[in-house]
Amino acid sequence: MAALARQLVMLSKPRIVAMLVFTAVCGAWKAAEGAPEGAVLAAVAGAGALAAAGANAINQGLDADIDAVMSRTRGRPVPSKQMRARIAVVAGAVLVVVAVALMWVAANPIAAWLTLAAALVYVFVYTVALKRRSWNNIVIGGAAGAFPPLIGAAAVTGTVEAVGVYMFAFVFFWTPPHFWTLSILLKDDYASAKVPMLSTVASERATYVQILLYVVLLMAMGWLPFASGYGGVTFGAVATAVGLYWLWKLRPLSRGPSRTETLAAYKYSLVYLAVVFLALAVEPSLPWY
Fold first, then answer.
1. For residue 165, what are the CA distances in angstroms to 148, 169, 170, 223, 226?
2. DSSP 37
3. 2-285 has which CATH code?
C-alpha cells in the first residue's frame, strides 16, 4: 500500500502541483482584494491540487513511451514498469472528476468548468495533439498551466473578469521562456524521444532570442494592471525589477552557456513567477494601494 501511495505521488508531479496551486491561491487573493472566504480558498487549493495531479497522471500514462527514452523521466512509475499506463490514466481521470465536483460544490460552476477545461487542454491539446508534432507545443498547450489563477479568481467572483484573464495571460506568456530554458538542458533527451521542442529544431542562439523576447513582453505586461485600474505602481515596479534580474540571469545563454548557468536561469524563472504573483496578491493590502 505504501508503495502504491508513493507511485501515485510520483505520478502527480508534486512540485508542479505546488506551483499551480500557489498561482491559483494568489489569483483568489487578488480577486478578493484581500483574504477570500476560507471555504473558497480551501476549494481552490484542494480541487486545484487534485485536478493538476490527475492531469499529470494521465499525461504520464499517455507519454510512457517517450518517458522511457528520456533519462530524466525513465524512472517514473509507468516507464519503469511499476505501474500500468491504463491505471495511471484511470487514476488521473478519477482525480479530475473529483476535483471538478469539489469545485462545483464548494465554489461555483464557472470555476468547476474552468478546472475541467484546464485538464482537457493539458491532456488533449498539449499531450495528444501537439507535444509530438509541433515546437509550438508548449506555447499553445502550455495554456493549461495558465488556468489556475483564472480559476482562483472565478472561484471568488463567480465570473470571468479582466483581472483573471490578465493572470491567465501572464502565466501563458511566462511558460515558453521558462520551459524553453529547461529544453536547452534536455535537448539531447528531447531529440532522442523525437519531441520537437524549440531547442531541438532551432539553434541555442535562436532559442535564447525567443526567451528574451518573451521576458521583455512580461516586463511590459507588468504595468498593464496599473494602466487598466486593477493594479498599482508597486506591482509594476516589482515585476520590472524581477524581470530585469531574469534578463541578467539569461545573459550566459547568448554565448553557449554551461549547464550550471542554464539551470540557474531555469530555477530563477520559477522564483520570478512566485514573486510576481505574491506581489499581485498582497498589493491590495498595502496601505498606499
1. 11, 6, 9, 15, 15
2. P
3. 1.10.600
DSSP states of 52-121: HHHHHHHHHHHTHHHHHHSTTTTTSTTTTTSS-HHHHHHHHHHHHHHHHHHHHHHT-HHHHHHHHHHHHI
| Residue-level length of the chain | 289
Q: Give which of 1, 11, 159 is closest to 96, Cα–Cα.
A: 11
Phi first, then psi: give them for residue 116, nearest 5 degrees: -65, -40
Task: Please report, for the chain, the start and end positions of each structural domain, with discontinuous segments joined by +.
Answer: 2-285
Q: Are 27 and 148 contacting, i.e. CB atoms less than 8 angstroms apart?
A: yes
pTM of the model as a whole: 0.95
Per-residue pLDDT reduced to its tens digit, 215-254: 999 999 999 999 999 999 999 999 999 999 999 999 988 8
Q: Is 39 helix (H, G, I), strand (E, B) or coil?
A: helix
The pLDDT value recorded for residue 2 is 66
Which stretches of the chain are DSSP H helices?
2-12, 14-32, 38-62, 64-69, 85-106, 109-120, 137-140, 147-157, 162-185, 187-192, 198-201, 204-221, 224-228, 233-250, 259-282
Residues 6+ apart with CB under 8 A from 150: 27, 114, 160, 164, 165, 167, 168
Return d(Cα 2, Cα 187) in angstroms, integer.
35
* pLDDT for 256: 77
